[in-house]
Amino acid sequence: MDLNLTIQIKNLTFRNPVTVASGTFGTSGEYAGFLDYEKLGAIIAKTITLRPRQGNSMPRICETSGGMLNAIGLQNKGLEDFIQKKIPYFAKINTPLIANIAGEKTGEFRELARALDQRKDVVKAIELNLSCPNIEEGGASFMRKRELIIEVMKAVRGETDLPVIAKLSPELGDVVAIAGEVIQAGADALSLINTLKGMAIDIERRKPRLANITGGLSGPAIKPVALRYVYEVKKAYKVPVIASGGIMTASDALEFLIAGADLVAVGTANFVNPRATIDILDGIVDYCRKNKIKHIDELRGSLKVERNEK
Ligand SMILES: Cc1cc2nc3c(=O)[nH]c(=O)nc-3n(C[C@H](O)[C@H](O)[C@H](O)COP(=O)(O)O)c2cc1C
After folding, report:
1. Is the beta carbon of 47 within 6 A of some atom in ligand 1?
2. What is the C-alpha R_g of the chain?
3. How far is residue 19 from each of residues 22, 40, 121, 181, 186, measured CA to CA in Å?
């Protein structure tokens, strides 16, 4: 039986809905020994900033029940390194590359978008990290202001006709309302959700387990929250959504697809099983075959809701 898993965002076609969540899949070839990148629907790169960033002090990740906390602090080698080293690596791979950018000022987002727009030969879309919870100076506190999110969205829109994906977190406030505003400001798609801010304490040392004290919670613990937002945003707007939040197995991914997600981004699961994306893709294919689904559109958003309202 022929099975068509292709997904479209603007003029961009993905061979299947499985991708990776930014920051959880290395920066270029780290996972190449475990899987064939050309089996994935897309690759979302780790966030880059205009200039290199060292990130936060260690320890900056720890396990929690049902998930993990991270406070990496957007460590990255900056735009120039991305253009000189990462883009040539991905140029050889026949899978759409989605760059992910963050800045401390609107002008930084604008410069990043302008530079990436020049590399349309490899960069096929831009994801805006509007929601990293781990940067106290600039970054998160800057981005938490709603009007600035809209300003950034409009500034990036003015620089590129590449598909622009706005990545949001419940840390920003009412995700459904903000989603509406970023769509109005020109977003072509949304990425839901980034991590939720949390903390963990070592009771023997009576110290925070992260040097940064707090960090972003990811993994199975946040899946129900992510699922709820994907469902509510898809119900409210006609906009493609990339879902992330605790997608560990094919059945997690299927929940998001049934709720309406267009792509599913695998994050924390990559640290547990470096082949998680492939296992998830295989599981989606099995499910479609078992349920005689021929096109992913028959599955996407197929949630049956029966409500007895009083
Ligand atoms: C270690 C780690 C690093 C991350 N780095 C980034 C990042 O650089 N940019 C970004 O937009 N999201 C980043 N995220 C958030 C993920 O892309 C994803 O949205 C989030 O973890 C929820 O998905 P998950 O529960 O499957 O991990 C990071 C998450 C983790 C765990």
Report:
1. yes
2. 18
3. 10, 6, 20, 26, 23
On whether the CB atoms of residues 143 and 131 are closer than 8 A, the answer is yes
- Provide the pairing of β-strand 263-266 with 207-208: unpaired
Domains belonging to the chain, first-starting first, are 7-54+72-204+222-298 (3.20.20.70)
Ligand 1 atom closest to Cα of residue 265: 26
SS3 call for 215: strand
Quick count: other Cβ atoms within 10 Å of Cβ 76?
Answer: 24
Specify burial of residue 309 (Cβ count, 10 A radius: 0-12, 13-18, 19+).
Answer: exposed
| Catalytic option among 128, 132, 172, 269 | 132
Q: What is the pLDDT along the chain (310 residues), one digit of tens a residue?
A: 699 999 999 999 999 999 999 999 999 999 999 999 999 999 999 999 999 999 999 999 999 999 999 999 999 999 999 999 999 999 999 999 999 999 989 999 999 999 999 999 999 999 999 976 555 544 555 666 788 899 999 999 999 999 999 999 998 889 999 999 999 999 999 999 999 999 999 999 999 999 999 999 999 999 999 999 999 999 999 999 999 999 999 999 999 999 999 999 999 999 999 999 999 999 999 999 999 999 999 999 999 998 876 6
Query: What φ, ψ does residue 148 adopt, rounded to 5°?
Result: -70, -35
Cβ of 222 closer than 6 Å to ligand 1, yes or no, is yes
Please give the helix or strand (H or E) that residue 117 lies within, else none. Answer: helix 106-117
- Give the DSSP per-residue string, 188-206: SEEEE---EEEE-EETTTT
